[in-house]
């Protein structure tokens, strides 16, 4: 079992990596830390085999954390910035993942760690446990000065507002600074699908649809021309059949 530590100051990024770790047999999450100081303290007390480490951290960067460690575990760097790649490989990291990170790209990076141990990674396949965890799954969204918890099962749709998104539930809406492409990678693909450049919807909330749009309750949401095929594949994966007209 490879013991993992996630270090990232963004709550959504931590939750995404935690969900990816949970999907791979042979990986075990020790803890998620939001800064390098917290991670350094943990590493003095607990042995880990792999750090999934963001570079741009408050106060102490991920690069500085690595340089401070005498007994380094394997490290995969995660960042939105390409310019650190040279420094990263100079520190002998296993891989360098650019955000937003897809599960396939994550798995390729993890495969390199398993290769060093001469073991092949496999994805966890347990639909009942996935369903149970989904009922309890949530994300935090920053609104004004507070972090607001939103359960995934309560989301009606997510709408892009350029550099912001609107997260709509039955009881409230949250507008937060976030790219819709990042949420597309973060949300479970079996439960959510992007049907338009501006919209992500939960598949189980769709009450009816046509080739050009879906209805969630009384809300009409368009299907973009470039997203139609993927939207139909997502619906069919979830045993929703569409009568072609």
From TrEMBL:
Signal sequence extent: none
Any one GO MF term held by the record is:
phosphorelay response regulator activity
Q: InterPro entries, alphabetically?
A: 2C-system_Tx_regulators, CheY-like_superfamily, LytTR_DNA-bd_dom, Sig_transdc_resp-reg_receiver
Q: Which domain of life is it from?
A: Bacteria
Q: Does the keyword Cell wall biogenesis/degradation apply?
A: no
Q: Does the keyword Ribonucleoprotein apply?
A: no
Domain annotation Response regulatory: ranges: 3-114
The alphabetical list of record keywords is: DNA-binding, Phosphoprotein
What residue stretches are annotated with the HTH LytTR-type domain? Answer: 139-213
Q: Report the residues modified as 4-aspartylphosphate.
A: 54
One protein family per Pfam: Response_reg
Q: What's the protein here called? A: DNA-binding response regulator
